[in-house]
Design brief:
transmembrane, membrane, 137 residues, PhaG_MnhG_YufB, transmembrane helix, Na+/H+ antiporter subunit G, mainly alpha
Length: 137
């Protein structure tokens, strides 16, 4: 391998390992579900992406072959991590609204309430006599 490819692989491996470590540490150390979501969805996803790109560069420099498997895995991770985090967050907020969640107070505090007379479905049940309300019956 050339010196430039070696340096690129080393930098990507260190960057990826650092992000994965920080994301995993955040998953373990943060107190609430909403705060724990940021570790695996942000830092760990970027870390794994950097590790997979390092694998692509290493395969090209060592074997002279471009591999698409790692890039497809990265694409899958970058698409599915935010979607799954959004679904977990929505379920958690709905459970918090119903009162079935018992968690310690988080570092960030409670989620903000919508300002004004606005209604946000995650915080409040549908009001009667509205077109989309299932509570009308």
């Amino acid at each position: 391998m050339t010196l430039v490819a070696d340096i690129i692989v080393i930098v990507l491996l260190l960057l990826g390992a650092g992000f994965a470590l920080i994301g995993s540490w955040g998953l373990v150390r943060l107190p609430t579900t909403m705060e724990r979501l940021h570790g695996p969805t942000k830092a760990t996803t970027l870390g794994l992406g950097a590790l997979l790109v390092a694998s692509v560069v290493h395969a090209q420099a060592r074997l002279g072959v471009w591999t698409a498997h790692e890039l497809l895995i990265s694409l899958f991770l970058f698409i599915t991590a935010p979607i799954s985090a959004n679904m977990i967050a929505k379920v958690h907020l709905h459970r918090a609204r119903v009162g079935t969640v018992d968690e310690p107070e988080g570092i960030a505090g409670p989620p903000p309430r919508p300002s004004g007379d606005g209604d946000w479905a995650t915080f409040e049940a549908p009001r009667r006599d509205t077109p989309a309300s299932t509570a009308n019956s």
